[in-house]
Design goal:
Blueprint: E1 3-7, H1 12-23, E2 27-34, H2 41-53, E3 57-62, E4 85-92, E5 99-104, H3 120-135, E6 139-141, H4 157-170, H5 172-175, E7 182-184, H6 192-201, H7 226-238
Parallel strand pairs: 1-2, 1-6, 2-3, 6-7
Antiparallel strand pairs: 4-5
Length: 246
């Protein structure tokens, strides 16, 4: 069985990607990161997803990107909320019991948002590359998406292609011709709704996942940050109720 290192954040995209890698016959080595992020509840979700998918090993690497800052996810900077146009999709605030409107992703600006973490995917893929080389694995999986995303520069196909080229120039195995690193992005051209449908077919339990950038103290999603609204839009498009409590 071929080995693959799969980046697993605990969200919809990475969880679906891990399920795809397993479905394609890979022995999955899941890799998550505790980088002192605001939404650390995603680490609990990643652990649950890894267990549900019965991955070969789940490794969590810890380092502190809050020391660098530059993002609403690694500082006290406010997470943007409610940036989308009205589509009539409603969620209910559990405290006030009042309904509020969830909006449409198409209205989000193409400008890079403050939730972008400087060089995050480059850092993550570098760790994944190191582990893959140690495992003598040639395949890396990342749930990058260039359709329903928030304008992050490190989710674009040209970025992935450039990193793959670099990976084969920068590793001992690549230089010696013993392996050729391939970065798989099975979700790159799918909408969030298509991703969810694919995951359901593969048996992904989305009740275990976490997407929110600004969860409450109990880990419940806010429903209003960009990530929550992309998620809710995806479930609406898929015709499936989101199992999380907003």
């Amino acid at each position: 069985m071929k080995r693959a290192v799969v980046l697993l954040s605990g969200g919809i995209d990475s969880s679906t990607t891990a399920a795809i890698a397993k479905h394609e016959g890979y022995e999955v080595y899941a890799l998550s990161f505790d980088y002192n992020q605001r939404h650390r509840v995603e680490l609990e979700a990643a652990e649950k997803v890894a267990l549900s998918l019965k991955v070969k090993k789940h490794l969590v690497i810890k380092f502190d990107l809050r020391a660098i800052g530059g993002s609403a996810l690694t500082s006290e900077m406010e997470v943007p909320k409610d940036r989308m146009q009205d589509t009539g999709y409603k969620i209910q605030d559990k405290k006030s019991r009042a309904s509020c409107i969830v909006h449409h992703a198409s209205s989000i600006s193409s400008a890079i948002p403050v939730t972008y973490v400087p060089a995050r995917n480059t850092i993550f893929l570098s760790f994944a590359l190191a582990w893959a080389e140690a495992l003598k694995a040639e395949d890396l999986f990342i749930g990058a998406n260039a359709v329903d995303y928030s304008g992050y520069p490190d989710c674009r196909p040209e970025y992935i292609n450039a990193f793959e080229k670099m990976a084969n120039l920068a590793t001992k195995a690549g230089v010696e011709g013993k392996s050729h690193i391939k970065i798989h992005t099975p979700l790159i051209n799918l909408t969030k709704g298509e991703i969810i449908k694919k995951g359901i077919l593969l048996g992904v339990d989305y009740s275990l996942t976490s997407s929110c950038y600004s969860p409450d103290k109990d880990g419940n999603p806010c429903g209003l940050c960009d990530s929550c609204q992309f998620r809710l839009k995806g479930f609406k498009e898929a015709g499936i109720k989101d199992p999380l409590n907003y």
